[in-house]
Request: fold
Amino acid sequence: MITHLTRLRHWSFLIIVTLILWLLNYHMALASDGCSALGIKVNSRFEGARVDHCIITQSGSVKITIEPENEPINDSPWYAFSLRTETPQTVPVAIHYHGGKQRYLPKIRVAEKSWQALTHQVDDNVLHFSVKATAQPKYIAGQELILFEDYVHWNKTISDASSLALSLLGKSVQGRPIQKLVHRTDGNEWIIIIGRQHPPEVTGAMALFPFVQTLMADTEQANAFRNRFNILVVPMLNPDGVHLGNWRHNANGFDLNRDWGKFVQPETRLIGDFLNNIVKEGGRIVYGLDFHSTRRDVFYTMPEDYPIKPAGLTQSWLDSLQNLTADFDVVQQPGTSPGRGVFKQFIADTYQVHAITYEMGDDTDRALINDIAIAAAETFMPAMVNVPQHAFNSVPQ
Ligand SMILES: [Zn+2]
Reply:
């Protein structure tokens, strides 16, 4: 009888586990590998690719459907795939979105790191364009692909050329390395810079790179800045999301920029632990910057009257940035999101200092993103150096 019951328990356990696995699989559906017919081949088996369903129609056009990794989710449908044909031909492509609206405009890779806009139309939330296809795969994506290896290369290059020491911060849900760059001084003040919480937001990456490079440049201003401040840079916090071609989330289906302070995800927790250690060793977090992309160029700041120190610091930085960039409108949007797990809010609430979400527009001119980031760093450094040490924060951390 006992054996019988135990067996029964085993069976119910197995059935429940199977059911859970099936449900998980259903909700975190793996993207398709592409499709192939009539001498036309769509491939989405590469890092950053995303195609959820794909068919080649009788008339030789491609119909792709894009779905989110899980829901609810921020409305940012991401797609990336390659297309080739046995004989050269122009292939019409239609991209349909489930669970989201058209956001990213199609681009085609024309050389190793060079992408061009594709002529397109959007009708009733369906994106249409044509690709001049040949036997050589053409890569098409919602934005330029900036992938894991690009970060590895950039991290190595800047650590070779500067005082930023490259090491492993830890691993993502799926075991991908998350690298950190650390500049240390004798002082105890720390600036925290992070990026790529959200996989498709590559214009944020295009800003983070020149911003950090400017902080590490061999200029009088940058030397003074680095003499005083320790710097932590984690350029890519969500390597799994990037790898999977996710719209927004990590491999567990979580928005990392809703996890700060909660730290239920390994990626955010790695930085949370690092910050705790800084403080334990007598360090002080004095500023946080988080690089993203959205539909326009905007700097999300904390409100003027928020209890952070010193008052007016971010305002005076952005004022100097505006003075330096006459043709660019520095849009500042103060706001709070208490308890929502946003990095900016977490830094402000935990350390009573300023933090900013640095957002570049999806379609902002790429050269302008670079110029603004350099100007932003050149104005950030004196703004920070001018603050007396005691002024950052009077509250014990
Ligand atoms: Zn974002």
